[in-house]
Structures are given as structure tokens and as C-alpha cells.
Amino acid sequence: MSELATILGATGFVGRRLQARLTAEGWDVFAPAKGDRSLFGRDMGVVFYCAGLTADYDQRPFDTIEAHASLVSELVRAGRFEQLIYLSSTRLYDGQAAAVLDERAPLIFDTADPRRIYDLSKALGENVTLTRTEGRGAVARLSNVFDWAPDAPGFLSQWLIEAARARDLHLDSSPHVARDYIHLDDVVTALITMATRSATGVVNVASGELTANGEIANLFIEAGWHVTFSRDVSPAPPPRAEIARLRALGVAPQPVKDVVRRYLEGLRA
């Protein structure tokens, strides 16, 4: 008998790849459409909560609250799941006064900052998942997820997509900006592993390393691309997410530079 999974947000960036992998591995996957109220009247198995807003959260604050906190509250109240894995973000660490943060670190937010609605709503979704599910909830805090599928979001994803079309790249950023990047396939592996190993608590789903744009640009230059940046600023780096808990689950994310190098080799071939 195949294992049942329910994916909320299955049409999104992570949800689509997760659904494809689960289906290929023989899971019975239910992917309800947005607004499908029948969800709360059926058994859900393992719920992967991939619903959320990223780029436009500041323009859609009330939709952000609905997606990150209200819907998961309804789902937990219904209670018809074996396990709930809530997708959050290491963005919650931005602005915290530490160079390295693990999952146990308390989070501090400025509640008067309107742009903190993303962090606060995600934090509420995490709290509901961790404290109201009778031990059946886990949180995956994702760092900067990238891929090169045509509609993959994010700075590095767009950079890689553009590299397939042009050899001269002018990027609206600075070579000194550093981020923790993790490939989409490693994220999906981590989520499925959290399900099969019945993980609880918070798990940082990240590479555990900060990589500067300039380091990635050097790979492009070595492979024959020409890369320039529009800015030359050196912002303070975000805190680095500790990934000991992820590694303890047996997941070892690929270093971003290895993934990019192989991708560029494939383009050249």
C-alpha cells in the first residue's frame, strides 16, 4: 500500500518538484486546488505545507497572513493528518545579532516594521505547527532555493536561466552580496527524508555556507561567460544557518559552486 501525501501549494516552485518526486517514488499524492474546502474532511496522510508568498508579500499583506498562518491553523484544527511538515524560511534569521544560528535560537522581530509581515506570519505558522499538533509537526526552514527551470524564482535562478540565452550577463546586484544557496532537488530530498524519518521540531534546510556573487561569477568567467554587476556595495552578510540537524537526517546538500559548475559544463556541451 502506497503512503499518502497531501501537498498544499503543489503548483508552486517547490510543490511541483516535490509532487513529481513523490509520485515517481510511489506515493499516493493528493494536491488540492487553492480554496478546495474538501481538504478538511478527508484523511491527509503526510502534509507538506508548501503554500506561501515570497516576492509580493509586501504588496499583499493579508494574503500573506492567510497563506502563512490562517490556512495552516484550519488544517491543524481539522487534525486529519499523520504528520505536518511546514515550509518556512531562514529569512527569519535576517537581522538577528549572530553570525551563526541554529534552530534553537530565539527569534527577535521589530513588530512596527511593515516588511516584517513575512517573518511574523511565518513565525506564527511555525508556532501553530510545533505547539498544536501533539508532536506530529515539523518545520523546514528553507534558505535561498535555486534551479534553472523556466519559471524558477530568485536571483541565482534568473542568472542561470539567462546564461542559457546569452554569454554577456549584466546583473543588478553586487559581487559582494553573499547568500546561502541550496538546489531545489536537495530541498525535495530533505523534505521527503523529514517525512520518512518522522522528524520533529525545526530543521534548517540550507547548504550551511554563504557564497558571494563574485565567487559564482568567477565560475561563469572561467567557463567563457562575461559577467558584470550594476553595484559595488558590501552589505553585512546574513547569519549563517547551522545544518547539523539536517546532516543528522542523512541529507548532505551539494555545494552551490559544484552545482553551478556542472550546469555550465552542460550548457557548453
Walkthrough of the structure:
The structure is a single chain. 35% of the residues lie in helices and 19% in strands. By secondary structure, it is an alpha/beta fold. The strands form 5 sheets. Strands 2-1-3-4-6-11 form a 6-stranded parallel beta sheet, sandwiched between helices. The chain has a two-stranded parallel sheet with strand order 5-14. A two-stranded parallel ribbon has the order 7-10. Strand 1 (4-8), helix 1 and strand 2 form a beta-alpha-beta unit. Helix 2 runs parallel beside helix 3 and helix 6 (213-222) packs parallel to helix 8. 42% of the residues are buried. The model has no long low-confidence stretch (mean pLDDT 95).
Order of strands across the widest beta sheet? 2-1-3-4-6-11
Distance between the termini: 43 Å
Assign the structural class, choosing from mainly alpha, mainly beta, alpha/beta, alpha+beta, or little secondary structure: alpha/beta
Number of separate strands: 14
Question: Mind telling me the C-alpha Rg?
Answer: 19 Å
Approximately what portion of the residues adopt beta-strand conformation? 15-25%
User: How would you sum up the global shape?
Assistant: globular
